[in-house]
Amino acid sequence: MEENMNLTAERSLEIITEQIERSRKSVSQDVGMTLLISGLCIVGVAIIVIVGTLLTNNWLFYLLYMLIPVFVWAIDRYVKRNKPKVPASVIGTMVDKTWQTFGIFVISFFVLSILYNKLMLAAAQVDNNMQVYIQNRINPVRIIFLMMGMAVTINGYILKSKWMVWCGIIGGIGGFFWEAFAVTDTLLTWSNLSLNSRIALHNITPNLLMAVFPFIGLTLPGWMIVKHQK
What we know:
Helix content: over 70%
Number of helices: 8
Shape: elongated
């Protein structure tokens, strides 16, 4: 009797484990496709902004970044329209909550940093001291890179994807330190380019970073997960 109960308990544990693994694979496929689409959308928008600003010198192209969530949602819905919906599970809920938290923090930080910078600029103009503004303004891009990397890495651990973990770490920390240590400005200072060329590259580089690091942190792991799960 006791032996049968042990066998039943072991079989129940095996069934639960199999269900968790099936759920993880299903969620991985879904998340991988969304990461791939998100990364490609960011890269595409960054390229459009670069080309648009170079050809027209119109900074309104930067507003396209605000539309990225709409692009991702629309394309994601279209790509997955004929695919079965991923069933609700603990794994799926953890992944969804991670990205919901990421979205809340990124949007909130982005808006608050813009408001803070505007207040600091107004105060600097009143005191006629722009140096204070330059020293105290917030650069939201590096923090967004870091939060993106954290979200991707956490998802990687949840889904047991080494590719996602390492790409999240490289994309997030790499983007953060590149911006934090002003690597672009340092490289341009060391270069022998003309002043106009340095100014142009200085304006283009943030968009290049918005293409490179999300490609590493989003597109690459998404592609590897989709490829592995097929």
